[in-house]
Specification:
alpha/beta; disordered N terminus; eight-stranded mixed beta sheet; 171 residues
């Protein structure tokens, strides 16, 4: 119910014009937590209350990302750098199928993950991969879940990627 009220208020604020800025003191700070153990992405508020939870796919290889091309998802605390329209992007997965249009789904949420570049949260052309280790290092969601997630996401949003037992053993 709290989510509905908050979304209703936000929608109303975006649709109305005010002569003075409204006081919005009670909006929580949202953050993303990705678990490589449970293969989930959760949106949490500042009190650790869950606002949303989606199944994911992550890096094919176990362990924390060390270098470009290692097929590992980085672990640690990062933030959203930008949100891009990736609906027309193409990618060649080097599986003999060539360039796939829509491989990243409708959005690419680029993460600031120094020293690594090109890591993000995005959709997929292959929803059967969700729940598995299938990516080159990014966090992959079903396109329908990504369209819901992007409503919560903003530049500067904190993103924590947690390790798994298997990842720790692979170190």
């Amino acid at each position: 119910m709290r989510r509905f009220v908050l979304l209703f208020l936000l929608t109303g604020l975006l649709c109305c014009s005010f002569t003075t800025a409204p006081q919005i003191e009670s909006l929580p700070a949202l953050r993303i937590e990705v678990s490589k153990q449970t293969m989930t992405l959760r949106v949490l508020d500042d009190k650790n209350q869950e606002w949303a939870c989606y199944p994911i796919a992550c890096g094919l290889a176990l362990g924390d990302k060390r270098e470009e091309g290692d097929m590992k998802t980085p672990e640690g605390e990062f933030y959203v750098q930008e949100i891009l329209d990736s609906a027309k992007w193409k990618h060649d997965f080097k599986d003999g199928k060539g360039w796939i249009k829509g491989a990243y789904g409708p959005y690419f949420i680029r993460l600031f993950t120094p020293p690594h570049k090109g890591i993000g949260i995005h959709g997929t052309h292959d929803e059967a991969s969700i729940g598995t280790r299938a990516t080159e290092g990014c966090i992959r969601l079903r396109n329908s879940d990504l369209q819901l997630l992007v409503r919560f996401v903003y530049v500067g949003m904190k993103v924590t990627i947690l390790t798994s037992e298997a990842d720790q053993q692979a170190q």
